[in-house]
Amino acid sequence: MPATRFMTLHRHILEGEKMHPEATGELSALLSQLGLAAKVISLEVNKAGLVDIIGFTGDSNVHGEQVKKLDIFAHEILIKAMDHGGHFCVMASEEEEDIIHIPKKHKIGKYVLLFDPLDGSSNIDANVSIGTIFTIYKRITPDGEPGTLKDCLQEGYRQVAAGYVIYGSSTMLVYTAGHGVYGFTLDPAFGEFLLSHDNIKIPANGRIYSLNEGNYLYWPQGLKNYIKHLQSNLYNGKPFQARYIGSMVADIHRTLLYGGIFIYPSDRRNEFGKLRLMYECNPMAFIVEAAGGRATNGNQRILDLKPESLHQRTPIYIGSPEDVLLVEKFLHENKSAE
Ligand code: P6P
Predict the structure, then answer these.
(1) Topology (CATH) of 9-197
(2) CA distance 75 to 79
(3) pLDDT-flagged residues of the chain (< 50)
(4) In terms of CATH architecture, what is 208-337?
(5) Alpha carbons 229 and 331: distance in angstroms, whole number
(6) Which ligand 1 atom sits nearest the alpha carbon of residue 212?
(7) Would strands 111-119 and 181-187 be described as parallel, antiparallel, or unpaired?
(8) Parallel, antiparallel, or unpaired: how do β-strands 294-296 and 238-239 relate?
């Protein structure tokens, strides 16, 4: 029986804590709580396709409960699951313009939680994989006080843990607490996340490039040259492969496991690209770097970017280190051509 056969998420987090004396039980508790929220969201996401079939009216279901948009549902589940455990001093969500305060009746903790509750949810009707992305920081304002925006706007290298849940052919939770990247697959029979991908390492390079080529006209010249370079050459004697799901969690999950590069660039229409720094690019960069990969905005390491606002966007080039370094070379060589 493989050693990891019944390594649950909760047990793995506890074991991880034993290896790092500086860790407190708190991180384990809140990561396990996130796993619980993921199970609840997974249940709802997986039956979303049935909404029309089982007679939900779209506004309220057969039980008279209001059927919410899935991303609002996921947002509310995460808040309900995480706001009372006494772990956090403040939270922030892609679905909420401002920071989310911990209700006065709950104990205030020393951590900060930022999340994108359901990234790619516009794909749900086509049954395309979507995901939840989360990141955890330690607060930097005095303990005991309500957390502030300052606690939320920390550079990515200060993350304590980060992870994502991908709701696909199976539901997987991938996380890092800075010491390796671990993937857990939800076993619906047990209702447990079981370790399925131990200590994930991204390949040094890969055959797959992933970006929305529909925006070619607006790309920087260096990126056009890079993609043409890939299309004019072979990878170990075979053509490169273009794969683009249009769901960041799914595209980066594939990149993490198979290698290659995911790109959402700035372009002539969007100076900072589309993806959000604080709760999309930073957590993904933290995970990919922990797996031996690289993540930059074309010039600077994503994790070193100084945040200015909660929902700011950043271009992102992320994946196998050799592939990210190569696209950066093309971008730098053509900087003057912009
Ligand atoms: P485009 C989904 O809407 C999302 O926010 C990310 O998950 C995904 O990577 C990106 O947008 C896709 O954007 O412009 O290619 O449709």
Answers:
(1) Fructose-1,6-Bisphosphatase; Chain A, domain 1 (3.30.540)
(2) 6
(3) 1, 53-57, 61-62
(4) 3-Layer(aba) Sandwich (3.40)
(5) 12
(6) 15
(7) unpaired
(8) unpaired
Of 42, 279, 295, nearest to 166 by C-alpha is 42
For atom 13 of ligand 1, which residue has the closest CA?
Answer: 246
Q: Which residues line ligand 1 (CB under 6 A)?
A: 119-120, 122, 212, 246-248, 251, 274
**Distance (Å, whole) CA 137 – CA 325:** 28
Beta-bridge partner residues of 136: 113, 161
Q: Tokens 């370790």, residue? A: 195
Which two structure tokens, joined as six digits, stand for 227?
Answer: 């993609």
End-to-end CA distance of the chain: 57
Write down the number of H helices and E strands in the chain: 8, 15
What are the structural domain ranges in the chain?
9-197, 208-337
d(CA 86, CA 82): 8
